[in-house]
Design a protein that fits this description.
This protein is of the alpha+beta class. The protein has three helices and eight strands. It has a single domain, classed as Peptide Deformylase (Alpha-Beta Complex), CATH 3.90.45.10. Bound molecules: nickel (II) ion. Nickel (II) ion binds next to helix 2.
């Protein structure tokens, strides 16, 4: 088990575009494992590789239905709309409402290199969009329609 340091807002690596993974080798598999360990340790629902300083298109998600590991993910379809209160492990203490699709279909490679399709609705759609944004150097705060004051959440 290896916990990696989560980069915080202000670190320029969070603003860079991640690169496609060409070969799924041991390094990528270790990266996936460390990312899952780091996400669970931090009580997060998703983590993108740039958040631990690696500019690769790799994402891990657990929105309550088990671990999802995605390599080179991209959104194929999106529909509907929802407002969801988001936070981010890279921006501690800040939450805000973001407009996201209600449903998305994402295509990616799994750790075995097989092409998979993930359909996400509700929270899973939000997390998929949030983590894929990280791969483009986009943070949720860029899209916030309303920041939530701490008192509102208590
Ligand atoms: Ni985030």
């Amino acid at each position: 088990m290896a916990i990696r340091e989560i980069r915080k807002d202000g670190d320029e690596i969070l603003r860079k575009k991640a690169k496609e993974v060409d070969v799924i080798n041991d390094r990528i598999l270790t990266l996936l494992k460390d990312m899952a360990d780091t996400m669970y340790e931090a009580d997060g629902v998703g983590l993108a590789a740039p958040q631990i300083g690696v500019l690769k298109k790799v994402v891990v998600i657990d929105a309550g239905e088990g671990l999802i590991e995605l390599i080179n993910p991209r959104i194929l379809e999106q529909s509907g709309e929802q407002l969801y209160i988001e936070g981010c492990l890279s921006i501690p203490g800040i939450q805000g409402e973001v407009k996201r699709p209600q449903k998305v279909v994402v295509e990616a490679l799994n750790p075995k290199g097989e092409r998979v399709r993930i359909e996400g609705e509700g929270l899973l759609a939000v997390v998929l969009c949030h983590e894929l944004d990280h791969l483009d150097g986009v943070l949720f705060k860029d899209k916030v329609v309303r920041f939530i004051e701490k008192e509102e959440l208590e």
